[in-house]
Write a structure and sequence with these properties.
Number of strands: 0
Structural class: mainly alpha
Shape: globular
Helix content: 55-70%
Number of helices: 7
Number of domains: 1
Strand content: under 5%
Length: about 100
């Protein structure tokens, strides 16, 4: 396979965080969501988002990062623990210092 620079992993702490985050969400491909999983996830969403996602259905939810994280967390795969187990301490501290998306 020929090297394609546009698919190269970014370097530095942010690249490490991005790659380990990718590895975490990649784990969801092994999970088989049930209608009960979908209903529980929908119940956790705010009203407008709940309506949109309910209309799209379970198959479409599989493409949602939020749904995949819900599935992983529900099955005991903590995102924080996953990151802590795979990032070097300095990169973990960098990641923990990043502002939350809600800030």
């Amino acid at each position: 396979m020929k090297f394609r620079p546009e698919f190269a992993r970014p370097s530095g702490p942010l690249g490490d965080v991005a790659f380990v985050t990718y590895l975490y969400y990649r784990e969801a491909r092994h999970l088989i969501p049930t209608p009960a999983d979908f209903a529980a996830w929908l119940a956790s969403l705010p009203g407008a988002a709940r309506g949109r996602m309910a209309a799209r259905g379970l198959a479409a939810a599989r493409t949602s990062q939020a749904f995949n994280r819900f599935l992983l967390e529900k099955r005991g795969h903590s995102f924080t623990d996953f990151m802590a187990a795979r990032l070097k301490p300095s990169v973990l501290a960098f990641w923990q210092a990043l502002p939350d998306e809600d800030s």
